[in-house]
Design brief:
Chain A: This is Chemotaxis protein CheW. Chain A: Residues 2-142 form the CheW-like domain. The complex is a heterodimer of chains A (145) and B (644). Chain A is mainly beta. Chain A is 14% helix and 48% strand. Chain A has a single domain, classed as CheA-289, Domain 4 (OB fold (Dihydrolipoamide Acetyltransferase, E2P)), CATH 2.40.50. The radius of gyration of chain A is 15 Å and the shape is globular. Chain B is of the alpha+beta class and 644 residues long. Chain B folds into five domains: 2-73, Orthogonal Bundle (Helix Hairpins), CATH 1.10.287; 78-257, Heat Shock Protein 90; 262-403, CheA-289, Domain 4 (OB fold (Dihydrolipoamide Acetyltransferase, E2P)), CATH 2.40.50; 419-547, no CATH class; 553-643, Rossmann fold (3-Layer(aba) Sandwich). A six-stranded mixed sheet of chain B has the order 10-14-15-13-12-11. Chain B is elongated.
Chain lengths: 145, 644
């Protein structure tokens, strides 16, 4: 069976996350801020007995900030190096099958997108950008290092 | 169940993978949260009593289970320490040395896996200390030391780490000699050797193949092995530090991370957000507007003077970049002492509660701030960040210097053994300045005054679903909110009302015992002023048994020879709060219950007569039909009430 992708919207853009890496899709209600942490760390939240580090994908991509004031946000939960993260997205749309290997996007993308891009893949719904979750989680710091 | 049967023979054990235990543990945690959710739903839609009862049972089972599962992973470090005295004794006897072992901090809890990982390195370091560190008695006398060498091993929590100190007052490490050896062995170049700081010289003992010992001994070989110790400790994410004064002693410090360690913590809040501070790092807590505290600014830097001691002060809100709307003089100062360094004061908005927290490492992006030691879930399921006190000092710009412990130990080896008893200093309802041992205070509660009412002969306070005897009511109760300590002796709880907490402090001075036993067991100096020390034993013995004391409970006499009374009636009477006696017991009774046939017994304050026929024989008949339960209970109740 072909690899599955989770289609989400971040900053108005439809992008794909590898579905195998996504443990669940949750609605976050409480968000405990982490003072002094990198700006893309929106805070902490709890899912069952686990602490989730909540990543604001908009900030991670330097597209501005997600407005978290209205309470409930949709987020995709992923695990990376033993830690659980919740990636705040605008919308979780669908799960689709991959129809091709990722290829490099040759046109110039925004700087933030460039950093997290794993290339473009074909799906039944047309071409879509595949996101590198690790790059999304580590945010802007990668650039500084 | 099979387990219970085999217990009579010998406790049987099986091996389990830690991974399985982890899975069990997270399963139980999920169960607790599901239970909380269910509790919330039940509260919203009040159901019938049967459901509530079943739910309560489920709750207590889950609590027990969580307790047991948590314990499977945690072990007191005592298990590791318990073998040390014997090992040192054997070693020193073999070497003709005299060594006194002083062990502290055995109650620190550590992940069992971690304990196994540090067993070998710890053993190795102790062997080294006895073999190479501590001198022969004659040499010690010549050097002006006591004949008996002191080896102290202590464990404590510090921030996100467990610190194990192994300290001896032996000959110390000769840094220069070590450097010479290192050059000879080709570990370092001669040119760089001269640039080495004393600390860097000492660190050379961790290089492979270096030893300052002249001879190879059977005990610790040539001293090679410190490199192995270091790599073992580093493999579990820890570090080894060495500190030594030549001629005066050596201290080795193992710092290992706490992964699943449960640590006692104090929750504080700033700008409306809660954080936790490991209690081990807290020296004391004072109010910024307290009498003994003054705050000053020197070139923008805060200096707090606490009882004459000048302490650097930083505001947590500044460190975190948060806006606190509590004025500076209304904050509380938490005096922190990170890992064997100087103290500093941290201003927080509010102090909340002492809690036991299971700390888990936080994500790298959070740890990168250097402020936090980990994350944890509070009782209500929301995440809390645990501070690293050393990290806060660093980010806040406080310079900390480590103390020269090696020197102090040689001067006063005994003094280090003394431990101050931490106490909570408070004002009682009558205004008296009192101190309560911190260990027995479970938590501080605030209840509405309506939750306190007399019940079964004494004042009782309702706390959630528990009703506890209330002590400390020696003055007028506040009309709205009452603050009280929840005291726990391990099995029973009582409440102790007070007006306000002054401070967290320690008893360091002499105690002058009280002449008569009572609520106050002694008077002592706490924080420079006299305070009465509350006697917890007296509290528990007085307030817990009071409920069972004869005079407090109404007494009812039942004829001993009437089987119906003894078998059918007695449980009802006892359930109504009476103590049941028979004619043979010579008590003054509040109530006597008689069958209509029998006569006499007019000594009782009230008498209830029971008849066996449902219908009264005449209109004047005041007897009660013996199966008229409602009438019986009413009569029992009014008899009990009439007594008061």
């Amino acid at each position: 069976m072909a690899e599955l992708l989770l289609i989400v919207t971040i900053g108005g853009e439809r992008v794909a996350l590898p579905a195998a890496a996504v443990e669940s899709v949750v609605e976050l209600d409480t968000l405990i801020p982490v003072p002094r942490a990198a700006p893309h760390v929106a805070g902490l939240s709890a899912l069952r007995s686990r602490v989730l580090t909540v990543i604001d994908c908009m900030r991670s991509l330097e597209l501005g900030a997600t407005d978290c004031s209205d309470g409930i946000r949709e987020a995709a939960v992923v695990e990376l190096d033993g830690h659980h993260y919740a990636l705040i997205v605008d919308l979780v749309e669908d799960v689709v099958e991959v129809l091709s290997e990722p290829v490099i996007v040759r046109a110039a993308m925004g700087e933030g997108w460039e950093r997290v891009s794993k290339g473009m893949v074909e799906t039944e719904q047309g071409p879509i950008l595949l996101i590198d979750i690790a790059a999304l989680v580590s945010g802007v710091e990668v650039k500084a290092a | 169940m099979a387990e219970a049967q085999s217990k009579a023979v010998a406790p049987r054990t099986i091996r389990l993978s830690v991974e399985l235990l982890d899975r069990l543990m997270s399963g139980v945690s999920d169960m607790v949260l599901a239970r909380n959710e269910l509790a919330r739903r039940l509260r919203e839609a009040p159901g019938d009593v049967a459901v509530d009862g079943a739910f309560e049972r489920l709750s207590s089972i889950i609590a027990d289970m969580r307790d047991a599962i948590t314990r499977t992973r945690m072990q007191r470090i005592e298990n590791l320490f318990v073998a040390l005295p014997r090992m040192v004794r054997d070693l020193s006897a073999e070497l003709g040395k005299q060594v006194l072992v002083d062990i502290e901090g055995g109650d620190v809890e550590l992940d069992r896996e971690m304990i196994e990982m540090i067993r070998d390195p710890l053993t190795h370091i102790i062997r080294n200390a006895v073999d190479h560190g501590i001198e022969l008695p004659a040499e010690r006398l010549k050097a002006g030391k006591r004949e008996i060498g002191i080896l102290s091993v202590s464990a404590r929590q510090s921030g996100n780490q467990i610190l194990i100190d192994i300290q001896d007052d032996g000959r110390g490490i000769n840094g220069k000699k070590l450097v010479e050896k290192a050059i000879a062995a080709g570990v370092i170049e001669k040119s760089e050797a001269s640039d080495l700081e004393p600390r860097e010289q000492l660190a050379l003992i961790f290089e492979a193949g270096l030893s300052t010992a002249k001879e190879v001994t059977a005990i610790s070989g040539r001293g090679v092995g410190m490199d192995v110790v270091r790599s073992n400790i580093e493999r579990i994410g820890g570090i080894v530090e060495v500190d030594s004064t030549f001629g005066a002693g050596t201290r080795m410090t193992l710092r290992v991370p706490l992964t699943l360690t449960i640590i006692p913590a104090l929750t504080v809040s700033v700008a409306g957000q809660s954080f936790a501070i490991p209690r081990s790092a807290i020296d004391e807590i004072v109010r910024a507007n307290g009498e003994s505290v003054t705050l000053e600014k020197l070139g923008g830097a805060g200096v707090a003077t606490i009882r004459g001691r000048r302490v650097p002060e930083i505001a947590l809100s500044d460190v975190l970049g948060l806006k606190s709307d509590i004025p500076e003089h209304e904050r509380s100062l938490v005096v922190l002492r990170p890992a064997g360094t100087d103290v500093y004061a941290l201003a927080v908005d509010r102090i909340h509660d002492h809690e036991e927290l299971v700390v888990k490492p936080a994500a790298p992006a959070v740890m990168a701030t250097g402020l936090y030691a980990g994350t944890t879930l509070a009782d209500d399921g929301s995440p809390i960040l645990l501070f690293d006190p050393a990290g806060i000092a660093q980010v806040g710009g406080v310079k900390l210097e480590s103390h020269d412990r090696a020197a102090r130990i040689v001067d006063a080896p005994i003094a280090a053994v003394e431990v101050d008893t931490p106490v909570l200093l408070f004002h009682g309802l009558d205004g008296g300045r009192r101190a309560m041992r911190l260990a027995i205070v479970d938590r501080i509660e605030e209840v509405p005054a309506t939750a306190i009412r007399p019940g079964a002969g004494q004042l009782r306070v309702q706390l959630g679903e528990a009703i506890l005897p209330l002590a400390g009511v020696n003055g007028e109760l506040p009309s709205e909110k009452v603050r009280l300590f929840r005291l726990n002796d391990g099995t029973c709880e009582i409440g102790y009302a007070f007006r306000e907490v002054i401070d967290l402090s320690a008893i360091a001075h002499d105690i002058i015992p009280a002449e008569h036993p009572g609520e106050v067991s002694a008077v002592t100096l706490v924080a420079g002023e006299p305070a009465e020390l509350v006697d917890p034993h007296w509290l528990f013995s007085t307030f817990l048994t009071a409920a069972e004391r004869l005079s407090e409970q109404p007494v009812c006499r039942l004829p001993a020879d009437d089987p119906w009374m003894q078998n059918m009636l007695r449980p009802i009477v006892e359930a109504a709060g009476y103590r049941v006696v028979s004619e043979a017991d010579e008590y003054e009774v509040d109530l006597a219950i008689l069958s209509e046939a029998s006569s006499g017994d007019l000594t009782a304050a009230r008498i209830i007569r029971l008849r066996s026929e449902p219908d009264p024989t005449s209109a004047k008949d005041e007897t009660i039909y013996r199966y008229d339960r409602a009438a019986l209970l009413t009569a029992l109740k009014s008899a009990g009430a009439g007594r008061r």
